[in-house]
Amino acid sequence: MITRKEYESAQRRAADLMRKAGLHISEKEEKSIEVVDFGLGRLDEEGVQVLTLVQTERISVKVLALFPHQTEPEHWHPPVENDPGKEETVRVIDGTVYFFVPGPDTLSRGFVPKGKDACYTMKHEVVMKPSDQITLEPGKKHWFQALDGGAVMFSFSTVARDALDKFTDPNIVRITEIVES
Amino acid sequence: MITRKEYESAQRRAADLMRKAGLHISEKEEKSIEVVDFGLGRLDEEGVQVLTLVQTERISVKVLALFPHQTEPEHWHPPVENDPGKEETVRVIDGTVYFFVPGPDTLSRGFVPKGKDACYTMKHEVVMKPSDQITLEPGKKHWFQALDGGAVMFSFSTVARDALDKFTDPNIVRITEIVES
Hints:
Largest interface: A-B, 25 and 24 residues
Helix content of chain A: 10-25%
Structural class of chain A: mainly beta
Oligomer: homodimer
Radius of gyration of chain A: 15 Å
Largest sheet of chain A: 9 strands, antiparallel
């Protein structure tokens, strides 16, 4: 869980990163930024900030902001009823993104969050700069992180059903709980 | 039709507009920009420049650049086999876009290209600035244009089958013919 104050502070930090990346986002959009701590309560280590631009029954477009040294945990998009699962293309807008997918272990510049070896099993590192993009077929495990300076990227996908995403870490809860104190 | 030289010049002008809008696009992407004259041979009046970022069997993401006073002709996305038709969200990145959709005639700041009244039947004007966006259901007729300074926008959509789009102007040919002389 996260306090309301921490949540709103993270929204502002994320909006700053997005604007620094050259994106025009409205005040209303800034207030809609979703701060995701994955129920782990250590947002600055494992988390992501998400601005949803389009969400229909057919497609989804999001802007993702990572704070410096923040990691989005390993996950995949499973089939849901008639949908074979979310197909997603991530394109870097600003900063450098360290992306991990199935393949030979080439982890060198990124890092597995401390004490979480069992929860990060993909070790094939793809270093992505602005205008680089990667397409993830449904079911493909992936995690990603920023180092110094943070990073901002687009996620273009088929319909997103975030609450049904699967995570390697069994302690993860996808929907952030905010406490008002 | 359009000459190779005109085509490449338009690609460069479009890439300049996209970069001025704050987008990071690679050299390879610049060379892939599609210059569309709709077979009308008057690109600067009726045309559009398109950079496709994502094109799969499920989704499509494009960057559209309009030169100053250039108009994308009225069209719509029809059903194709099992697909109810392309659903599209256009989001302005830079400049002002004058968008025309079904509704009461409010055309005031935009203009119908000279002599083409029969080909532009939607007169409900929506003025869009950076971060404004509009979602078009399949089958909804629309056209749009830029005035001074041109404009750059995203098109986020379900699968695009541009060659099957329908246009009000019967003279339009969607695929640009390039002559080498």
